[in-house]
Structures are given as C-alpha cells and as structure tokens.
Structure prediction request, 237 residues.
Amino acid sequence: MNPRQRRGVLLIVLSVVGAVAVVLAVSGYVADVGRQVGPMEPVVRLTVDVRAFEAIPAEAVEVVEMPARWKPPLALTSAADLQGRVPATDLPAGTLLEAGDVTAPPEIGEGQRQIAILVDAETGVAGNIGVGDVVDVVATRAGFDGEPARSEITIQGARILSIGTPQVEEGVDPATGAFAANEVVPITFVLDTADVLRLAYVESFASTVRLALRAPDDDSSLDPPERIYAPTGAGGA
Prediction:
C-alpha cells in the first residue's frame, strides 16, 4: 500500500469515527432533551375558528402531542370527547380544547328564545358569576318627564347559558360627554318570549344593567311592587 492509499484509508477511518461521534452527540442531546421535557401526551387542537353552540365538524380538530408537564389539566385528549358537545363560546383556531370550552347543546323549549346581551364587566359580572348560575336582571333607569329615577328587577331567575370573552365597547360617557371605553361581556340566556322582549328593551334603554346572583335553591318570586325601588323625592334627570 503506497503512502497515498494509506492517507486515503486514514481519512476514511477518521470520517467514520467523526460520523459516529456526531451520531452519539446528537443521540445524547435528544435523550437529554427528552428527559427534560418528559413524556408526551395527546391533546385536541382546533384547526379553524368555531362559533358558540354550533357543532364542531371533525375536520375542525386535530389530535397533537405535547409534553405532559405543559398540558392543561383539563385538556381534552380525544376527538371522541367532543361527541354531543358544542363550544360554550367563540373559539379561535389553535385553541387547545379543555373541558370548560365545550358544553351540552342548549335546550330551547317551545316558546323560548336564546338571547345574548352585553353586560358591563365590572358592575355586571365581576368574576363571580358563571355558566349555569341563576341571576336576577336589575335595570337602573334615569328619571325623565318628572318621573323619579328607579331601579327594577326586570327578570327573575334567569339561568346563564354562556359567558363570552370580554370586549371593549367605545362610546361617549353620558355624564361628561367625553369619549370613553368600557369593557363588556356577552352573556347568553334562554328565556321565554316575554322575558326576551323585556331584556332587549332594558339593554337598549336602561342606564345600567346588572346581574344579581341568586342561591342555587332560591326559587322565590317578588311581586311587581317589591321589584321596583324609587327613592322618595328623587327628581327627573
């Protein structure tokens, strides 16, 4: 074997040793990353935007894997978990679905309607009211034409079907005339037709709409005179 051949063989040997070293280094790195990340578990992810209370088509979801240590505790793990369920609120593509994101389809009986209103996030919800809670809808009206200002329980025992994502509503503050931005939350109810009309009216014309939480077992009902408070001597606005 001449010197040139020996150099060729040596280079081949060095290349093989280098390749083996690279493979071992990459394998060690991958194993180290795997030890740090931990085991992988399946989660269900949306591939398109979905709307509240509309059926989620099969092509709108995919099952992907993510490290168990970063997986949300209530994350859905199979597309079968969505059977008979609908989104509780509008959800964007890319959302990792959790148990609280889906609910049973709303049961709307004969003579009932589903209606959503925007409620001030601070005075109407304040983080203490959730889906399934029963509330009274309280409307405050400014006085006019000599009538006093008053507050009234407009609807009693309304069950909340869903609570949407807070959003900013822009407008003019009636008290100062200055521009103002207010955070509101869409709240959905299922009510009979008469209450739907009342709710639509107070949302449009009341100064403020508040939700008063009731105890789960409270089925009491106030007579009309007890549902209105108008302070004596209060003037019109």
Summary: The mean pLDDT is 80.
